Amino acid sequence: MRAFESLQGRFLCERETKVTNTNGLVEIRWHGRGGQGAVTSAELLAQAAISEGKFAQAFPSFGPERRGAPVLAFVRISDKQLRIRAGITEPDVVVVLDPSLLRIVNVASGLKDGGVLVINTRKSVEEIRSEFDIKQRLATIDATKVARELLGVPITNTTMVGALIKATDVVRLESVVEPLRHRFGRLAERNINAMKRAYEETIVKE
Question: For 19, 143, 145, 150, which has the most beta carbons within 10 A of its beta carbon?
């Protein structure tokens, strides 16, 4: 298990997040396929939260990761020290990197009533809501298009970090910049631009 947890105390938050949480805890579940970078996304988000003085952890689901096979990654962000290490079954936020997963996995399973589903798709919020009977808030972005245009490859993990932040405000967009630079080196600026563009283009509806 890979995990990141801050060594700092309580954090000072300048604004409330847009997701319902209990005792300052926000739980996020990422759905992707092996090789798409869901675990990397989770780690980047946790590092951003830690840089803001929050407690955070990121870890993949147990089991072998095969390229192309459905995978899960989890993030917890809190204003208190985290002691839970189990997978997240009732998330506040669900992020879907690959729209094909909508037909083979119940990605909304356990999503809280006040939660939000963030999906990489070319379809509108209304189409997704009607087709998959989603009751919670929805955020959509054609992250594949953004990734192809700015990164040259259809890998949407950093793009979807921008979409997640637009839908939730769980961390500041600028807090992810340094983790991206550390992770991607000379390719960081492209990923930063992809994240920022997704933030601007993500559509969020109740």
Answer: 143
What is the structure's pLDDT at 29?
97
* Contact present, 48 and 175 (Cβ < 8 Å): yes
Concatenating the DSSP letter of every residue in the chain gives -------------SS--SS--BTTBEEEEEEEEBTS-HHHHHHHHHHHHHHTT-EEEEEEPSS---BTSEEEEEEEEESS-----SPPSS-SEEEES-GGGGGTS-TTTT--TT-EEEEE-SS-HHHHHHHHT--SEEEEE-HHHHHHHHHSS---HHHHHHHHHHHH-SS-GGGGHHHHHHHHGGGHHHHHHHHHHHHHH-EEE-
Q: What are the tens digits of pLDDT across the range 135-161?
A: 899 999 999 999 999 999 999 999 999
Cβ–Cβ < 8 Å for 34, 71: yes
- 26-205: CATH topology: Pyruvate-ferredoxin Oxidoreductase; domain 3 (3.40.920)
pLDDT digits (tens, 9 = 90+) for 155-204: 999 999 999 999 999 999 999 999 999 999 999 999 999 999 999 999 99
